[in-house]
């Protein structure tokens, strides 16, 4: 998860009963496997003393910053969103390195064409 991020900032009041998502996400960030995936990712924890709601801010390697309301967003959902965006970033990088335009635009008429690269299996083959 951290391999797609350059910075993680987790803000919460330790006395706030809504901090569960922040603590779970912090534990995920501190896991050995996560740290090994990107040792240069900065993980910052800001302990607050006011009524500011728990919040998680992530900065992707391309500089895009995203904030999550940790009172209503489970840590696993935040992790899933990061992984999805990370896969998008990897795909974008792969196309750019190959000299292709990004994003890839597929004309509508091509979307409606049948794909001839796969031949349909016969009923007997499906049952085996």
From TrEMBL:
A Pfam match: MRP_L53
Subcellular location as annotated: Mitochondrion
Keywords associated with the record: Mitochondrion, Ribonucleoprotein, Ribosomal protein, Transit peptide
Protein family membership: Belongs to the mitochondrion-specific ribosomal protein mL53 family.
Matching PANTHER family: 39S RIBOSOMAL PROTEIN L53, MITOCHONDRIAL, LARGE RIBOSOMAL SUBUNIT PROTEIN ML53
Protein name: Large ribosomal subunit protein mL53
Organism the protein comes from: Rehmannia glutinosa
Lineage per the UniProt record: Eukaryota, Viridiplantae, Streptophyta, Embryophyta, Tracheophyta
